[in-house]
Design goal:
Pfam families: IGFBP, TSP1_CCN, VWC. About 10% of the residues lie in helices and about 25% in strands. It is mainly beta. The two termini are about 25 Å apart.
């Protein structure tokens, strides 16, 4: 929505008749072609965080308006979400900033600053062959969300005991596990869904392993809307 300006200001900004370039501008990906604030010439809609003013309008199809709240004396305005809160869209549903949601039983996500981060609810550990389990195998278990590692009958019995054990002490180990791990790495994708990794021994076997979790620094720009003209 455009700012309500006095008629004399509009008359100064909006000259009649319209004089527009013959060829409309080529817009960057995610920026649709729209009419300027005067309803005169076609321009590229400004995207989230980009500068805007009465003439250079924001992309209303993305729910953006020209935000003058942090702009001194009407200059330096930028495009922002209309309600002042950034949301994120996942599988066609929009979540509010800070909202926690589960897109599946395997993931728990949190909407944050227009993007989202997810942590796996299932262990993503990799089990290497050992003398007591030379052929580990991960299988889907009926009635359970997360796949589980299986070995021989003896090892399956130990795994069941390990899952029932509280805290970092595992019955598979004769000693408490001294937890160690690196920080989560930066997201592998600059926009859209990527993953971050860390090395940690926080598992039932107290073994170093590479763990992954999904992340999204920010949503990728939407493709330009198809024109009906």
């Amino acid at each position: 929505s455009a700012m309500a300006l006095p008629p004399q200001v509009c008359a100064q900004l909006c000259r009649r008749p319209c004089y527009c370039p013959w060829v409309p501008p080529r817009c960057p990906r995610g920026s649709p072609l729209v009419l300027d604030g005067c309803g005169c010439c076609k321009i590229c809609a400004r995207r989230l965080g980009e500068p805007c003013d009465f003439l250079h309008v924001c992309d209303q199809s993305q729910g953006l308006v020209c935000d003058y709240s942090a702009a001194p004396m009407g200059t330096g305005a930028t495009c922002n979400f209309e309600d002042g809160e950034e949301g994120c869209e996942v599988n066609g549903r929009v979540y509010r900033d800070g909202e926690v949601f589960q897109p599946s039983c395997k993931l728990q996500c949190r909407c944050l600053d227009g993007g989202f981060t997810c942590v796996p609810l299932c262990q993503e550990n990799v089990r290497l062959p050992t003398p007591d389990c030379p052929y580990p195998r991960r299988v889907e278990v009926p009635g359970k969300c997360c796949p589980e590692w299986i070995c021989e009958a003896r090892d399956q019995h130990l795994l069941r005991d390990a899952r029932a054990a509280p805290g970092p002490v595992s019955p598979l180990l004769p000693y408490p596990c001294q937890e160690w791990g690196t920080e989560w790495s930066a997201c592998s994708a600059t926009c859209g869904v990527g993953f971050s990794t860390r090395i940690s021994n926080q598992n039932h076997y107290c073994r170093l392993e590479t763990q992954r979790r999904l992340c999204m620094a920010r949503p990728c720009p939407a493709p330009p809307a198809a024109s009906l003209a």
